[in-house]
UniProtKB/TrEMBL annotation:
Name of the protein: Uncharacterized protein isoform X1
Gene source species: Coffea arabica
Lineage: Eukaryota, Viridiplantae, Streptophyta, Embryophyta, Tracheophyta
Gene: LOC113688620
InterPro entries in the record: Met_g_lyase_put, PyrdxlP-dep_Trfase, PyrdxlP-dep_Trfase_major
Amino acid sequence: MMMALSIAAAVASPAHHPKQTLKPLKPLKPILGLPLRISSRLSVPKLHLSDHPFVPEVERAVDSLHSEFRAVDNLVARNTARVLKAFQNVRVGSHHFSSSTGYGHEEAGGREALDQVFAEIFGAESAIVRAQFFSGTHAITCALFAFLRPGDELLAVAGAPYDTLEEVIGIRDSHGVGSLKDFGIEYREVPLKEDGSLDWDALKLAVKSKTKCALIQRSCGYLWRHSLSVTEIGRAIDIIKVQNPNCLVMVDNCYGEFVENIEPPMVGADLIAGSLIKNPGGTIAPCGGYVAGKKKWVEAAAARLSAPGLGVDCGSTPGDIMRTFFQGLYLSPQMVGEAVKGSFLIAEVMTDKGYRVQPLSRIPRHDTVQAVQLGSRELLLAFCEAVQRSSPVGSFTRPVAGATPGYASEVIFADGTFVDGSTSELSCDGPLREPFCVFCQGGTHWTQWGLVLGEVLKLL
């Protein structure tokens, strides 16, 4: 191996050292026995077409998606500007990254600053962002319990909620463990239309006087439906409030953050909730979740997370966690943009191979989830195995379907991620039930999915 070095010598002016005699430089000796080659140019290997890392199907798809990728870059720029402005307005400084232990009473202001940044970005009055939220489901549950009391009714607007909320609500047997049903809270849902869209006519008649909270799930979850745009969410909120102005609207915002340039609180949502190991953690946050919206209800959700009277001014922030929260949030628009590009690429390639996809390859995105209907258990397992094999962590392992807490069906997950369960890095999963769909999320750069798809196509 040759070591190429460029050498520049700076010589002091003789005027400052009249008696100094300048001697010529001695030749450099080889380092560790390696010969030296003095050169002003580095040798760069030529790239040949055969060196391209993508299979032909992926190359063609990438070439065809230029305008879609450009539109995503424009979205990223707008959202990054919004995030940057919030950081500057709150005057975020390095002291906000300090850690705290125990009760967290001596915390240096990072919690409050992070809450304020989140609130401004999402157009909310207030926010609580904490490591103590275990998951998006946990944050959503705290928000629901902030709203609902015995005798109230919860109405799910977009069909059945995500699997992990079924036991929270009491749809599946969770008697005696503190579900909403245990506390005398009733539940109804507005079924989706046959094409998977919201039933607007049914929604206009669905809200009753005892309907205290309407739950809107922005992402598709494990349903074969299109995810909701913020504009559609705003329309649904208007329809709900016309029927009952006192009905509060809670939006499950998981996978939706920064996919558009507006967020649900900007169109009237009373609360939103989500996870930091999804979009707003920027692939860096190691844990946590958030609730944002009207100040009164954020405080009520905080009381559910901790205890009445403790408020939001507590909770330890150990180690380097505050820096990861701030930095992850700042990077989120960029990471979400890459995930959206990846979803376009998956849809384009899999459509070309004859598979049904949701959403379609060229339509605007409203979350970072791309669903592919594979049609059989074997193909679902094979797809997830290919994703795991193409991951940086645990590539040597084989994902196995099994029972997972909170899920009604067996589920298979492929997530070779640095943060356990971080769907924003790159992952896919799916329940082992008809029609055997795989749900793909994340990606720190769209080229990750380009490489993954090469492995997928070998098996399919």
